[in-house]
Structure formats: C-alpha cells, structure tokens
Design brief:
single chain; 285 residues; membrane; DUF2189; transmembrane; DUF2189 domain-containing protein
C-alpha cells in the first residue's frame, strides 16, 4: 500500500498535535516522576576531585576535535558581548559579563555531561550527542533549571550596575580611560571592586549549591527540579570543604581560560563539563 503525505491541512494538524504532545511531556517532567527514589549522596574527598578532573580530561582527549569545535562558540559570544558593552559605554559591565561564565557554565556544559554519560554507558558518541539532551527523562526540568540560571545571571548584571552607580556613579562612563582611572585611582573605585567581588562570590556560591549535581542528575533520572536542586544543596552541605575546593578550581580555571581573549574557554569549559559528570557519579549513588 502506497504511503501518501495527505493534504496540507492534515499534515499541519498532525505536526501541531505532536508538538503540543512533546510540550506536554516536557511540562510533566518538571515535577519529576513520583516513583523515583530520593537520591542518596556520598562523602567526597579531595581524591575524588582529582579523579573527576582526570576522567574529564580523558573524555576531552577522546572528543577533543568535537568539543573544541562546539565550545569555540563560547569565547566568540563572550567577545561579542564585551564588544557591544564597549560600544554602548557599558565598560563597567565587561568584567561581570565575563565572570558570568561561572554562572552560565553549568548550562553551557549540559552537552558535555551527555557525551560523558553516553561514553560511560558504552554508547556511540560524537558532538551530535549534545542534541540528544532533548530525549533525557528530565528535559522539562532541565529547561526550567537553565532559565533559573539565566535569571541569576541577569540579576548579577543588574546588581553589578547598581553597585557601580552607588560607588563611582558616573553614568555613562566618559571613556575607557576615565573609567579605569576611577576604578583604580579612587576610593570609590576600590569600594566598587571589593563590594562587587563579595557580591559575585555570593552569586557563585548560590549557583554552586543549586547546580553542582542537578543537571547531570536530571539527565539520568526524572526526579524533578526541586529534588535535583535539593540534592545539590545536600551535596554541598555534606561536603563543604571539597565542594568549596571544587568551586575554587572552577573559578581559577575560568579565569585562566578567559585571559587570552576568552579563547581558553574552548578547552577549559569542556574539561570542567566532563569532569562534573564524574563528580556527580562520585557524589550521588
């Protein structure tokens, strides 16, 4: 029997129904599967951090050409954002924009988690596996968690702007030269840097507690947003020293990767992304 496409109206109707059905599945995964058991967490050691980084680097070597090709987009986006900030006399937001990679890094690394998961499971893996994330059991919750991370990033930028106005207060900055002179040559500038660094630390800690294992957990199990976030919080509370050490490793790595025009991020982000998957494996039973 011959297969026909049918009339255009029926074709559109079928695809609209399929699309709404897919959105319905995504919405249902936000709350998670009620039959899923509560994740059990383990105690982490510094050796676990070293092992996770070593395994992450091994995955990076395996997928090097794939992930570098994909992750080159991140420094390009960062440079474009910095350029637009300079063009719009938003010099004071360049550093918050760049440091925002620490807040958005977990979202950008979801594809790396999926590649490591597939390699660990012995499945065929290449950079196309990044798009397989949409098939994960908790895709709806992943989308919601990503939106939360972007909201935190937006709040950080807004607060950084407020701190600038309350300290230096010159809006817009007259030039990059006068801005740098105000920052490094005045008490108000030093106050801005100290307060901004302290506030940035709070935002980084918030993201660390929210997503240290939540994205990998949602890739593997449909536990819902609340359970995933609470599991991350429990991991941090149960392992304060090791998780703070992990946050420091991530922060220092991102700074090093950002120095040569952000190009190093195309290497740093995938290594950290792969390593985070193995940290999740060590942190959650």
């Amino acid at each position: 029997m011959d297969h026909t496409i049918g009339n255009p109206a029926s074709w559109v109707a079928r695809h609209v129904i399929a699309t709404f059905s897919h959105f319905g599945v995504m919405i249902r995964t936000i709350g998670g599967d009620k039959e899923e058991s509560k994740p059990i967490i383990r105690t982490l050691t510094m050796g676990d951090l070293r092992d996770a980084l070593a395994q992450g680097y091994d995955d990076f070597k395996t997928f090097r050409s794939d992930v570098i090709t994909v992750c080159t987009l991140y420094p390009i986006i960062g440079v474009c954002l910095a350029f637009m900030a300079f063009q719009g006399s938003l010099f004071h937001l360049v550093v918050p924009l760049i440091s925002g990679f620490a807040l958005l890094g977990p979202v950008a690394s979801v594809g790396m988690y999926e590649m490591s998961r597939r390699r660990e499971a012995g499945e065929e893996t290449n950079w196309f596996a990044i798009f397989e994330v949409i098939r994960s059991p908790g895709i709806g919750a992943i989308v919601v968690l990503a939106v939360i991370c972007f909201a935190i990033f937006a709040a950080w930028l807004g607060l950084a702007h407020v701190i600038y106005l309350l300290t230096i207060g010159t809006w817009p900055p007259e030039s990059i030269g006068s801005f740098l002179a105000d920052v490094f040559g005045t008490g108000a500038g030093w106050t801005m840097m100290i307060v901004g660094t302290a506030v940035g630390f709070v935002f980084a800690l918030l993201v660390l507690m929210t997503v240290i294992v939540s994205f990998p957990l949602l890739l593997e199990r449909n536990v819902g947003v609340v359970t995933a976030v609470m599991t991350s919080v429990r991991v941090v509370i149960a392992n304060p020293v090791t998780t703070m050490a992990w946050g420091l490793i991530v922060a220092v790595s991102l700074v090093i990767g950002s120095l040569p025009l952000l190009l190093g991020l195309s290497v740093v982000l995938p290594i950290l992304g792969h390593a985070t998957w193995y940290l999740y494996r060590k942190a959650v039973v």
